[in-house]
Automatic annotation (TrEMBL):
The keyword Plastid is annotated on this UniProt entry: no
This protein's GO CC annotations: plasma membrane
Location relative to the cell: Cell membrane
Source organism per UniProt: Streptomyces tagetis
Protein name: ABC transporter permease
Similarity comment: Belongs to the ABC-4 integral membrane protein family.
All residue ranges annotated as the ABC3 transporter permease C-terminal domain in the record: 272-392, 731-846
Protein topology in the membrane: Multi-pass membrane protein
């Protein structure tokens, strides 16, 4: 009880000093809990949607997979005649055929895409009784005939659509233009999908290409018949040629498909939260180390009157426990707020999430509290242990811990050994022949060098701070020298404070090098390899009508089609490979200048010929002239001669196996031929500008596709990598904020620790302005120390990662010096910002009271 009272008294006495540590715990716990609440809410939203849209029993094509089309770009189908067979099964109250496709684009009368954004699908289908479970018609009526369509209310509101407006639906089988006859509203939360409904016959013709097919059958059970019993009855009637699912099984399958995506988001965000926790550990260690140092005499008195080491240790750990509890409880509450904020952000991006579905599982606060408290107590363990070791007489003399010097030497030696081992691992990773082996070594090197730099931080602080001070602070005279000496006064503290900032900036530097190198490699490869003037691509396969518009464009010397087919290859050694093949026009050999290790790529487009990549050829002992067996999905098996082996030392089409369109047509039925995933074009000599304008005009009715020349394509690549990096930087911002709090806390506690000293300095003539400048300079030096270590370490990681990417064809190393220098300069401003409050408080000190402080 005495220990608890002492700890509580100390905690409340230093509540201002604990505040920033509590904020660090709060932010870290909030990010973890916010991630869990956000992902759980998304899962709840989809669970409700899947439950509401599933029939009692669903009959699908045997090989159908959720959200996937067949090889030909159309949904997998089952014969319409199956519907009559199902209706005859025992226990069937009603059955209806459903049609749907997600390979569609919907545009309004202004040719603007009104489909979903933010990754959600655009779905076209027929209006059925099953849809009434999840939607209700709130305006107009259900579509009747080929000239009417119904749209969901969210899409109508977002794009200003109303009854009577015209929509054009672009599908693989053609375009359908219809006026809006009705608007339907979701009864559950719509995660962001855009939905258009046709009558059944129109949906069959427009989406499936036949009125004799359905995407699936929805069956309603008669009263008293369970879903499982109905499934058994339908299975007996239809046999094993179909996939038959109960409502629960259908919802579970859809849930599993979305779970993979959700897990990626969840664990990525938790990873960044873990980084913030790691940075927070340094803050907490520093806080308690300084508090212990400031209470050395108090601890000595406690020991002198009978307190044991264990009691002193327990007192400090109890304070940490109180800090962890306060920070974690507030963090759990803040996490719910973060989740709501993320939901609003996702809604702005096109994925609607309602706070009505906000899900806070019982495990979420438990995880948040446990994580925050355990991390805080563990971080305070070393300072607590150090406090317990102080002898009463040494403490009363303010002599500190006798073993500090020896412990510092051991720490420095361990740090140097770990850093050396990590550097060796990074060098081994850079020299690896296989990306998988190199990735393991890279991970090991990152961990070892990070831990090593943290351990050797105090030693590095003595060197790096002197160098930075010589370059930046000496010009400020005595004030600059005082700031330098303050930063060097406790190298362990400076090292720990800088290390917190180092972690976040190391990741920023690493990712910047990797991202910049990826862009430089890809653009260099484009300059070297791509001969096409124009590239046409989109987020969907290219529909035949857009292909025809492209081929009819004036000013083009040729247009190249490019299709990916599902196929299984059997090599001469008897091994199989099911990664597929690529069918292209012979002009693709001009559009992509692929070097070969054997033969010529142009020869691969001869009848019954193909090419393979050099890695495949090496693994299976394949040479030009050998024959491979290619079993085309939905088609025949063919024996094709290897006419070329392409060099896989490239980032474009690495490992692709090419054959001609004529060879594909010989072995694959017309109805199984896939759409083009991308197309290329070359302008007639001297007509590039004219052809570019004409091609854009030809494809203007199809806004889902982009027409890019090589400059556009490079910019698109830069933008995509830039968006990804910005998202990662945004997530790393939390760790950097916690690191800034660490600098603020260190300075604030340092000011308290030096109260008497500051009073004496003021008494002998140091002005308030000079005092504030001294503290700001000290903060800048610490921030630049952390930045220098972080940027150097991160560039080492990034360079090693680029060498591994070189094994995948990304051969160009590009260090983004403007970004690196910008981050370094920005760190100085971070230091200035962190010093504002401590410097202000120091400047307001009463000189006489400060001198009188014991």
């Amino acid at each position: 009880m005495t220990v608890l009272k002492t700890s509580l008294r100390n905690f409340l006495a230093h509540k201002g000093r604990m505040a920033l540590s509590a904020v660090a715990v709060l932010l870290s716990v909030a990010f973890v809990c916010g991630t869990l609440v956000f992902t759980d809410t998304m899962n709840t939203t989809f669970d409700k949607l899947f439950a509401a849209t599933s029939a009692d029993v669903t009959v699908l094509p045997k090989d159908a997979k959720a959200e996937e089309n067949g090889q030909n770009g159309l949904p997998e189908t089952l014969p319409a005649a199956t519907l009559d067979r199902v209706r005859s099964a025992e226990g069937v109250a009603a059955a209806e055929g459903a049609v749907f496709s997600m390979n569609v684009t919907v545009v309004d009368s202004r040719n603007k895409n009104v489909g979903a954004s933010g990754g959600a699908p655009t779905i076209a289908g027929n209006w059925t009784r099953t849809d009434l479970k999840s939607m209700e018609i709130t305006s107009g009526h259900a579509p009747e005939g080929a000239t009417e369509v119904m749209v969901d209310a969210d899409t109508a509101d977002k794009h200003g659509l109303k009854l009577g407006d015209t929509l054009r639906t672009i599908a693989q089988t053609g375009d359908v233009t219809a006026r809006i006859a009705g608007i339907a509203t979701f009864k559950t939360t719509n995660p962001g999908a855009a939905i258009v409904y046709f009558d059944t016959a129109t949906a069959q013709r427009a989406l499936l290409g036949s009125t004799e097919a359905f995407s699936q059958l929805n069956i309603t059970a008669a009263d008293g018949v369970s879903d499982e019993r109905l499934k058994e009855n339908v299975s007996r009637t239809l046999g094993a040629d179909f996939k038959i699912q109960t409502s629960e099984e259908n919802a579970d399958e859809n849930r599993q498909d979305i779970a993979e995506f959700m897990n990626v988001i969840k664990y990525a965000m938790l990873g960044f939260a873990g980084i913030a926790f790691l940075v927070g550990i340094f803050l907490i260690v520093n806080t308690f180390s300084m508090l212990v140092a400031q209470r050395t005499r108090e601890i000595g008195l406690m020991r002198a009157i009978g307190s044991s080491r264990r009691q002193v240790n327990r007192s400090v750990l109890t304070e940490a426990l109180l800090l962890g509890v306060v920070g974690s409880v507030l963090g759990v509450a803040a996490g719910v707020g973060i989740a709501v904020g993320l939901m609003k952000l996702m809604s702005a991006a096109g994925m609607n999430l309602s706070t009505d579905d906000l899900t806070v599982k019982a495990t979420t606060p438990v995880v948040g509290l446990a994580l925050g408290i355990v991390v805080t107590v563990l971080a305070a363990y070393l300072p607590a242990r150090r406090a317990g070791k102080i002898s009463p007489m040494a403490a009363l003399r303010d002599a500190g811990t006798p073993a500090d010097g020896k412990a510092g030497l051991v720490r420095a030696l361990v740090g140097l050994l770990l850093t050396g081992a990590g550097a060796a691992a990074l060098l081994a990773a850079a020299a690896a022949d296989k990306a998988g082996d190199g990735a393991s070594l890279l991970g090991l090197g990152v961990v070892l060098t990070l831990v090593g730099f943290v351990a050797v931080g105090p030693l590095l602080a003595g060197v790096v701070v002197r160098v930075i001070s010589a370059l930046l602070l000496r010009a400020f005279g005595p004030v600059g020298r005082l700031a330098e000496r303050n930063a060097l006064r406790n190298p362990r503290r400076t090292g720990a404070t800088g290390a917190a900032l180092m972690i976040g900036l190391a990741l920023v530097a690493c990712l910047s090098v990797v991202g910049s190198s990826m862009v430089a490699s890809a653009t260099g490869e484009l300059d070297k390899s791509v001969g096409a003037d124009f590239i046409v691509q989109g987020n969907q396969p290219i529909v035949p009508q857009a292909e025809k518009a492209m081929q009819d464009t004036p000013g083009l010397a040729h247009v190249t089609r490019y299709k990916v087919l599902d196929a299984t290859l059997t090599s001469p050694d008897g091994k199989t490979d099911d990664t597929g093949v690529t069918a292209a026009d012979p002009t693709y050999a001009e559009d992509l200048r692929r070097p070969t290790t054997q033969g010529s790529l142009a020869d691969a487009y001869a009848p019954d010929s193909m090419s393979v990549g050099s890695k495949y050829a090496e693994e299976h002992g394949v040479r030009v002239g050998d024959t491979l067996t290619v079993a085309f999905k939905g088609g025949e098996s063919a024996r094709l001669k290897v006419a070329a082996v392409t060099d896989d030392d490239t980032a474009i089409d690495q490992g692709a196996r090419y054959l001609s369109m004529d060879t594909m047509l010989k072995y694959v039925p017309a109805e199984k031929i896939p759409p083009n995933v991308i197309m290329f074009a070359k302008a007639e000599d001297g007509r590039q500008g004219e052809a570019y304008t004409a091609l854009k005009k030809s494809l203007d009715p199809y806004p889902q596709y982009q027409v890019l020349d090589q400059t556009d394509f490079k910019q698109e690549l830069r933008d995509q990598v830039g968006q990804l990096l910005n998202m990662v930087y945004g997530l790393l911002a939390l760790a950097i904020i916690v690191a800034v709090l660490g600098v603020v806390n260190t300075l604030a506690l340092s000011v308290v620790e030096r109260t008497r000293e500051i009073g004496l300095m003021r008494a002998i003539g140091l002005s308030r302005r000079q005092l504030r400048r001294m503290i700001r300079m000290e903060s800048v030096v610490i921030a630049l120390f952390g930045a220098l270590l972080g940027l150097g370490l991160g560039m080492g990681w990034g360079i090693t990662a680029q060498r591994l990417l070189a094994l995948e064809g990304l051969n160009t190393l590009d260090i983004p010096w403007p970004t690196i220098l910008g981050v370094f300069v920005g760190s100085a401003f971070v230091g200035l910002f962190a010093a504002l409050i401590p410097a202000f408080r120091a400047g307001r000190m009463n000189v006489l009271n400060a001198i009188a402080t014991d």
